[in-house]
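Regression report. Comparing outputs from two consecutive submissions.

Submission 1:
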Amino acid sequence: MYNGGDGIFSFWKEIAILILFIRTNSNISRKISYNHLIQIYVFIVIYFSIFFIIGAEIYGASMAFRTFRNVVFLPILLFIFPNLVIDKSFVNKFFFVSMFSATLMGVVGIFECHFGYRELIRGYMGQIEEIGSDGTVYYNTTNLKIMGFERMAGLMGTPNQFGNYMALTASLIYFCLKRKIVEYKHNIVPWLIFIFIIFCLIESFCRTAFVMFLLILILTEYKSKKNILKNVIAISIASLLILYVATLINDSVNEILSATFSGNEASSADRGNNFKRGIDFLIANPFGYGLGSTENSLKNYVFFSESAFLNIGVEAGVVAVILFLCFCKKINFLLCKQSGELSRFSSAVVLTNSICFLFANIFSTPYIYFFWILTGIGLMKSSIEPCSSYK
């Protein structure tokens, strides 16, 4: 998260995950029927290991490791959670930590965008390329602005990573409060925090993240099979109202939304064109170039897109895309067999990411950690009775 810290912190996170995996699987007290999931995962590990060796030779081991970590290593979290029991205490702690982390991220984003701390924060994170003789600051990432307006990124590397993270956290907060999975003496506070996070999400101007947020909520309502139409309409109206209020608070929101829907916003149009070029490229080159070949920080990178679908296809071939989708399908099948409310939420998260896999980079950090954690929680054995009072 700061200059030079990625390698250090990532190393210790991976060590912690391995320790948890060993501890939770050394003495399994109950049998979990995920043998088929393990088989798919083992095949993914073997398959991607081949492309890791290829990529490490051409693009460097550190670049190849990034993809291997995000796509192959982190799903090991799924095999930690099924051996644990979820209770009220765990849910409350997890909810509080998630809410606090997103709030802190949003507060930093507010200081960055509205109080002139961007240069300080980006400099701390090592994202300043150079400072011109006239004082102009040049960053090593080009998407911190859109149509001349500042995009909120908080402590994330890019506004898109920030938006994806805030979308996932906001959907978790909404779900837990709406289903009364967590309850506070003064529920108005977490609801106000939820609204704050949504406004931060909007100021990231990551439209894919906002769609992701809405899709998770709609899918959870569909899976609840209770007042589906009523709740979906309520979500849609509330979303439009929040967007309207955001346009009143920040004029740039209105301009960017208008340009997006009219097709005059350059990044939206370019993403569509880039996706088409990527499909053509993948059809012409279906076998993969090795892990790290889509790292656009390299001079010899092959292709890069904001689509995880295209990036994985370019790095490890069409087979890798099929394997990932099969893996997600099997995870969703196991989640649907669970009876808890959180399993329904996790299922909605998996389905949403399987869809957004096509047009968003869902393997960015730290979002991908949070994604696998939320997915794994849905596989935990619950000591919480399913909520029957939800309407």
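Submission 2:
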Amino acid sequence: MDQPASTFPEPGAKITYREAIEAYGALERHAIGLVYNELFSPCAGAYDLLQTIDGAAEKYRGFDAAEISELRCALRAFSCERTSLANGVDGERFRLMQSPEKLDAFDRTHIFEVGVDGRKLIGGIKAAISLIRNEAELFDEYSDVFSRKPTVNCRIVRKRRRSENDKADAWFARAMTVAMCCLAVVCVLHSAGEIIAIAHLLG
């Protein structure tokens, strides 16, 4: 379910700080839940998510991919805005969050402007996960440990892809061998023709 992303305010929307804190918190939890399991999710934040995706992308040769670069910028922007929203100046809003009455009083004189595109952020995370997963399932024998898919399914997919790649490599090798043999035959025939022609001229 992508409800936190679909209900997240549009960029430029002006809302109360209470609404912003709730919306940003829900979006962050949803984003983290796309990568971490429910046991680790409460302990992670946006920067943990960024480091995890960066590490996986580097491992599976996707570090410079456009999807990863865009997501890296989006997650940093989200994390900065989320931290600023929660802390304010000298942690003033952190103290306000402990008192609903004070936060309501603060909201009567302050408005927060949304700067994050929630739908785009979640879409970017999903695109990066898909990119990394495709590489991981093909190369990593232990990728099924971290996958949401059943272990047997991961192994079947990995074996099928490797088999397809092996077949493609085998056909390419055969085609190159045939091409080289044909070239060799042509060269031999050409050389034989030249030798016969020279023999006739000298003869």
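Expected: both submissions complete independently.
Actual: both completed, but the second showed a warning that disappeared on reload.
Relevant detail on submission 2: The CA atoms of residues 22 and 117 lie 15 Å apart.
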